[in-house]
Specification:
The chain has about 210 residues and is an alpha/beta fold. It contains 10 helices and 10 strands. The chain has an 8-stranded mixed sheet, with helices on both faces. Helix 1 links the parallel strand 1 and strand 2. The chain is globular, with a radius of gyration of 16 Å. The termini are far apart.
Length: about 210
Amino acid sequence: MTSIGILGAGRVGANLAGKLAAAGHRVTLGIRNPEGSAALAAGTAPRIAFADQRTTARTADIVINATPGHTSLDRLAGLRTELSGKLLIDVSNATRDADDGLPDALCYPGSSLAEQLQAALPDTHVVKTLNTMLFTVMAAPDTLATPPTAYLSGDDEDAKRTVTGLLGDLGWQPAWIEDLGGISTARATEAMILVVPHILRRDGFKPFAVSLAR
């Protein structure tokens, strides 16, 4: 059983929290306003604790970044001490939105949020994954008719092996996990987000993943 802190209690964070808690992990959702945790608790699975984001980052063994990507760098850079020596799993995409609220452009063209986080947090092992799908698929990959792909990017091999294990707890089969290499490969998967708004405008919010077919 691992202590997992999730920064961000929106749809992505709550979805991951429920599945990881059901798998037996101790999960804390890090929220900006802990006073509002009672209302959030009513809509989440049991055995999930709530704390402010600094406390969550400090006390968890593994931290998942599920905050809005365009604010993640500033937010997490302020937690450098708390995240030192930790594994940080980044599932966010940093984009600027179009008028309809869907992603329109990357915040870090020629780079990636994951790379920016790794540079800002040199004592933290950053691994990028689960950012190429609708949030519902992250914790229920077997709901798609076609096997999806979860890509991994990160410089530390042990960290990626740990993340692979957690993906298994979320329902991902080993054959569905594609290790792309170092953290710089995250710029490729983060760029995939630019196809997503066209899919959503056409089909609505139906579960999907941008996957590798062989």
